[in-house]
Write a structure and sequence with these properties.
With 144 residues, this protein is an alpha+beta fold. It folds into two domains: 77 residues, Alpha-Beta Plaits, CATH 3.30.70.2400; 66 residues, Alpha-Beta Plaits (2-Layer Sandwich). The chain has a three-stranded antiparallel β-sheet with strand order 2-1-3. It is globular. It starts with a helix and ends in a 7-residue tail after the last strand. The relative contact order is 0.18.
Length: 144
C-alpha cells in the first residue's frame, strides 16, 4: 500500500510546477503593482522547496522595502485551488503577522483536503489565541 501512495506522490510532483511571483506594489494591499513596474515571475521550479529557495533569495534582497512582496504560486493538472493560510498574528485583528514570524501558506489542496489539513493544524495550535489559519481559494493567483 505504501508503494502505491509513493507512486501517487511521484505522479503529483510531475504535474505540479511552482513559481515565485511578485514585485513592487502601489500599497500594502499587495494587489496593484506600482505604476511603471511589471509583475516579476521566476520559474518554473520542479519542487516547492526549489521555489522557496528562490523566494528567500528575493525577499532577502528586498527586506528594506515594505512595498516589495513575492509569493509562491503553483499550477497543477488536478484543479487543486485551495490553500491554508495563516500563522501567528501580532494582535486579535488578525491582519498583521507577528514580528519575527512569517505568513504560512500550505497547498494547493482540493477543498476537502484543505479542510482536513486545516482541522489538523488548528488542533495543534488551539492553545495559542494569536494563531489563526483560513482556507482560501485561488490564494496565489497572480495579481490582476
Amino acid at each position: 500500500m505504501s508503494g502505491s501512495r509513493f507512486n501517487e506522490l511521484e505522479l503529483l510532483s510531475m504535474t505540479v510546477t511552482f513559481y515565485v511571483i511578485g514585485g513592487e506594489y502601489a500599497d500594502t494591499n499587495f494587489s496593484t503593482l506600482l505604476p511603471g513596474t511589471q509583475l516579476e515571475s521566476y520559474g518554473p521550479f520542479a519542487t516547492e522547496r526549489e521555489a522557496k529557495v528562490r523566494w528567500r533569495e528575493l525577499t532577502g534582497k528586498t527586506v528594506d522595502n515594505a512595498m516589495i512582496r513575492y509569493f509562491l504560486k503553483s499550477t497543477d493538472a488536478d484543479g487543486k485551488n485551495c490553500w491554508v493560510v495563516g500563522g501567528e498574528y501580532a494582535d486579535t485583528s488578525f491582519t498583521r503577522i507577528a514580528e519575527s514570524c512569517e505568513l504560512e501558506v500550505y497547498g494547493p489542496f482540493t477543498h476537502n483536503d484543505a479542510r482536513m489539513f486545516w482541522r489538523g493544524i488548528t488542533a495543534k495550535t488551539a492553545d495559542n489565541a494569536m494563531v489563526r489559519y483560513d482556507i482560501r481559494e485561488n490564494y496565489q493567483q497572480a495579481p490582476g
